[in-house]
Description:
alpha/beta, 42% helix, binds S-adenosylmethionine
Amino acid sequence: MTSTRYDGDSWDLASSVGATATMAAAARAIATRTDRRLIDDPFAEPLVKAVGIELATRLATGELAPDGLVEQVWIDLAKVRTKFYDEFFREATNAGITQAVILASGLDSRAYRLPWSPGTVVYEVDQPRVVEFKTRTLADLGAAPTADRRVAAVDLRDDLPTVLRTAGFDPARPTAWSAEGLLSYLPPEAQDRLLDTITELSAPKSRIATESRPNPQPGQEDRTQQRLNGLSDRWRLHGFDPDMARLRYFGERNEAAPYLTDCGWTLNEISVRDLLAANNLPALKDDDMRMGDMLYVRGVRR
Ligand code: SAM
């Protein structure tokens, strides 16, 4: 399969991989508007509007019904995924951790809406144009972070430790790390490098939350790609052309969960299928996108 990606490519929130962060925030806006049991992200809608992708704005505000334009599972996934990571950070905070790193922070608003304990430092890591946009937009909206928020503008294929340390990160303190919706957008070797780096920078009792996708069976990724192409075709009719199937790196890679276990993390895992059921959300009807088997994992550094 071909990809539009190349080493060193960069983006803002309206282009390439950046647009996936805007669509993820649009899903949070829809979920917040329609079913606040699991998710309450008041910043999602204004952030999406500020990016200026017309289709994303119309979906986020409710002007356009999601039917046929986004899969219901995509909205349900936004609910359970947001809850999963919110709970992860709440539990880390309750366990006394006061240093958090949100990798690939996109339009995530946790640094502005979670009840961090006093003195907590939250590092948000993403490409420069992404983090700068969010800082500026939320300041313009009058939003104030609920922790000491610091940004680390860096490409996650590059030198994360230097940029984090420059921003004040202290590897001697236990850290809560999240990498939400990121790993499929990294080349396999960059994923390994990033997980190695996280491990090296993690004092004992550090915590991690991320996703681990099982490697594909033959033919499975062709169906995923067709489904993503169908989605892109429908979005193109509304003037938005992200070419979703070409943004991810497909093919075999080291699966994140066993890799982290080998690095010295003790993990708990739950599949998307079980997460949906545990939250009383409808089961997947078909699973061309290979969502059901994807694992949400969290763990502690031994
Ligand atoms: N975590 C956010 C969420 O769940 O809403 C954003 C997820 S979005 C699907 C993918 C994010 O990964 C984008 O914000 C993108 O900029 C970031 N990303 C992907 N590859 C990256 C890289 N090499 N360096 C920095 N950020 C990257």
